[in-house]
Amino acid sequence: MIIVNVKEGESLDRALKRFKKKFEKTGVLRELRSRQAYEKKSVARRTQVKKAIYKQGLNQDNV
């Protein structure tokens, strides 16, 4: 359960923004979407490899 303490004089929009950030970090929504449709292990592995290649390419550009 996510708990967001609202400070004295803090606007509700600010507290809602902090809640959304915490919720995004937990990854609940991402996992829910991934479970909506079954994905074969071979397809999941392929997408994971593609992401790794993409990230590695980004790291090489920075160096």
Question: Mind explaining what this structure looks like?
Answer:
- The protein has 63 residues and is mainly α.
- The chain has helices at residues 12-26, 28-35, 41-62.
- The longest helix has 22 residues, at 41-62.
- The model has no long low-confidence stretch (mean pLDDT 92).
Can you describe this structure in just a few lines?
Belongs to the bacterial ribosomal protein bS21 family. The chain is mainly α and 63 residues long.
Low-confidence stretches: none
Order of helices and strands: HHH
Specify Rg, calculated over alpha carbons: 18 Å
Tally of helical runs: 3
Question: Which sheet architecture does the biggest sheet show?
Answer: none
Average pLDDT level? 92
Structural class, judged by helices and strands? Answer: mainly alpha
Amino- and carboxy-terminal Cα gap:
40 Å
| Number of E-state strands | 0
Shape: flat
Helix fraction bin: over 70%
Percentage of β-strand residues: under 5%
Protein name: Small ribosomal subunit protein bS21
Keywords: Ribonucleoprotein, Ribosomal protein
Pfam families: Ribosomal_S21
GO cellular component, one term: ribosome
Topology:
Elements lengths: L11 H15 L1 H8 L5 H22 L1
List keywords for this structure.
63 residues; mainly alpha; flat
